[in-house]
Amino acid sequence: MAGVASPTAAFPSLETALKHHFGYDRFRLGQRPVIEAVLKSQDALVIMPTGGGKSLCYQLPALLKLGVMVVVSPLIALMQDQVDSLTDNGVVATCLNSSLDYGTIRQREADLLAGNIKLLYVSPERLMSPGFFGLLEQLIKTVGVSGFAIDEAHCVSEWGHDFRPEYRQLSVLRERFPQIPVMGLTATATERVRVDIAQQLRLRDPLIQVSSFNRPNLFYEVRPKGRDGYQELRRQVKQHPGSGIIYCLSRKRVDELAQRLTEDGESVLPYHAGLSDDTRRENQTRFIRDDVRLMVATVAFGMGINKPDVRFVIHYDIPRNIEGYYQESGRAGRDGEPAHCTLYLAYGDVATAEYLISQKPDADEQRIARQQLRQMVDYAETTVCRRRVQLSYFGELDLVEGPCQQCDNCLNPPPIEDWTVEAQKFLSCVARCQERFGMAHIIDVLRGSKKQKILDLRHDQLSTHGIGKDRSVEEWRLLGRSLLHQRLVDETSDGYPVLKLNAASWQVLRKQITVEVAVPKDFAPGPAEASTIEDTTEVAQLLTVLKALRKKLADQQSVPPYVVFPESALRQMARTRPQTLEAFSQVSGVGSRKLAQYGEVFTDAIRQFCADYGLESDPGAAARRSRPVRERRQSVGDTHRQTLDLHRQGLSLQEIADQRGLKATTIASHLEQLIRQGETVEVDQLVDTDRQRTIGTVLAEMENASLTEIRDRLGSAFSYEDIRLVRAAWQMEQSP
After folding, report:
1. N or C: lower Cβ tally within 10 Å for the chain?
2. Is the pLDDT higher at 381 or at 501?
3. What was the pLDDT predicted at 537?
4. CATH of domain 537-682
């Protein structure tokens, strides 16, 4: 069996090893205790949200322990992404899967037995294939196996949102190789699923690390999908820059939506199980390499996507359960940058989902799926904080206090009313019915129903029968959902949604707790945009340059752009403008391998950009971003002052450029920055008033769009310089 190499043998600390191999200065919350446990060969169960850094929990120990870390992963594309990213960081990793020819497999097996590989990715099917256990036994006897890491471990559980029967067979690892530590990792798992994973994988006294499911960088909203749902979707797609995923329930809807978006000029590809393997693989590759902006997909497009810079996820149809929705919407903003998650609600789509559930052959599966769908509808219809509902579902009851300000309900809250008396009636009825029935039955009793079931149970003789006639069915449902979301009553989750009183329920009944309910005038949540602070123009422009450079380098290596650098690293470069290798090494994500491989080319690009625009390295830019626009008062540099003086002499943009021997774009950048610093710049002298009005109209429609998107809307007759100057003046007028 493989031993453990102390991190201090090569590195004075785990943090030093982290920086060397992966370029990060510190661990994310929850990573260090898991890594320490794995280094001690302890079993572990790791629940971390998408983008939380699960992979590092086995990747770093794999580099610090003797032997090979065997990682079980469900999809070929996901394995290849991981291998590409590790290889780019100088880590020797490989995968074995069905897409490889015989010669390649034999060569990779030889590399493994020679001790040249630190991480091996395999699918559960490959793991269980004839002969693979023989390879594992050879590895254990020669170079050693440092551990088994089961990724997407929720697939083990029948209570998980993506149960896969072949994952059940993984318990054989403990039977055949009891001396090798095992860890399970997943982004989403309720308490019930966590227990099932540990039992199925036969984990021994595992470290259980459950990180918060809160993703504060994600904005959640629900919009009604009316007859013009497609046009609303089109407007939203136009407003959001960057990459996006649009999820649909059916293959037919995916194909139709992808075709309409393509016809309307969007860069988009479809993805669903009805396409050939080659087409799906090609479409996914083009998306993760930024060759197309949008992917329209069924939920088949899920775990295989390892793209950290997805800026928005739209569910055009209602998802089937909250756990799946959290996982799919969590594909947005994995780099920690702001991202947007929208769910469109149409009750016709709910009926479609119910029909699909009815096609399941197993009655128990149908029952569980219907309850999960109803929970999803409750989430869509809720008037309370959406983040609170999500976190409550995963057992984080007290994390969100007050408005999260990152969902539509918190930004545009409906009126709050005191419904304590109604809550007491509702909970009293639950008690009178002996906590054996669901919400629909409780509401029937409250409203005095004479249904045969009510009469047979003699619930028409209960003291609570008919005491709620003054409220509609929908009002009682609103209260019931609110009580559940506020944890003032519980509900079983085994497919039979029975209401159960808890300690808080009795506090309500004893008048110790007041119950407040957000009551909308009607259910029509409108569009709400996340409140984000915009980067300065220089940052946005440099970010565009760095993205283009990253894409060029990625294409040369045939890897996705994020393998070179995540967008968060590029944004840090754009804000701090490092122009030396020493400064560049301080960027998060720049390890020794990245520094050697990319340091010169990126610092050259940044130096050239700063020379073109008369800028210096600016480590304070990020701090200034947090202040309102009108508070950004900087001293005007000499080069900007010279431009301003010539402007005040009445010279045009080109005349100033000619006199100073600079490009017109550089002069426009000077004037734009001067406008943002509060200096008086006569835009009328620079841009025709009719053109200003036209640009202003587009700005009002596309307030958060990029310069390129605005210019695309206006057409080539409008210069970037004119747009930048008008936009700067317009934004200053809009700012408080």
Report:
1. C
2. 501
3. 65
4. 1.10.150.80
